[in-house]
Amino acid sequence: MPWDRPLLFTPLYQNRVWGGRRLETLFGRRLPAGALPCGESWELSDRPEAQSLLREPVDGCTSLHDLWTRRRAEVFGAAVLDLPAPRYPLLMKILDACDDLSIQVHPPAEAAAELGGEPKTEMWFVAHADPGAKLYAGLKAGVGREEFERALAEGRVAELMHVLEPQPGDVLFLPSGRVHAIGAGLVIFEVQQNSDTTYRVFDWNRLGLDGRPRALHVRESLRSICFDDAEPAFAQPDADGLLVACEHFEVRQGAPVAGRSVGAAGEALVLAVTRGAATLGGTRLSAGDFALLPSAMVDAARQPEAMEPGTAWLEIRLTPPPASP
Description:
The protein is mostly beta strands. The protein has helices at residues 22-27, 64-70, 72-76, 109-115, 145-153, 218-224; strands at 12-20, 38-44, 46-47, 50-51, 53-58, 61-63, 90-97, 103-105, 122-129, 135-139, 161-164, 171-174, 180-182, 186-193, 199-202, 242-245, 249-254, 269-275, 277-280, 283-286, 290-293, 312-318.
């Protein structure tokens, strides 16, 4: 069958002023030549402007969009056949932050509709952390809008941010409306809604790749920030490895086990390999790979082989639409 192996896609590399080239050293990638820093690798993207292409065409499909629109049952399963989404609803990335990202927010659905943007809820898995690297997420307890606006005018917003010092393997959930920033020295696996709307509220007074200050979106940010969102903590896995479950996606931590199938029969999921390597369906998957396991993949092909010690991955699933009453 054409679906009895993991589906792999060609990464889409994005230049960012805060990026670097650690994807080469950490995951053996061959980044585009040149001096521009690579900040993001889009691993699964069904954006009109950035379409993930299959490394090998399957059953007449060449892209993630083809799979979603033409082979949804075989690839993504019966549970999402009625999902009212013209494009695959998630976007998955690896981020290489060699400098601080802007302090930013993604709009909740209500604000996005008003502002002409797209809502974005996301989660981060920390794949690499330099000593002392920081994540900024939510506000310090007691900070309200008035104090935030005053700090914004005085250029000291960072003082009001809740700061976490992550270690590799830490996971943080970021619902839309949570103000946040990734600090320098971190490599992050990101799972998010299929959205590219980001409102920058503060950018450390730096210049962009074109030598000009990057645009800020203060009005949009103030409309989008949840000022009751204070001091979030890292996610802790439950007994079944569940890290994050929301209305858009579910993420579990997992590892290959000899003789045990990955995912249930008829189920689609994405494996994001965080360390080590294993073979599934005759395909070798290594750290940094994002592989889509089709729902039509037979049980025998889902059983891992040739596993390196310590291999681990994230299991990423679409949340199906709620059942009709």
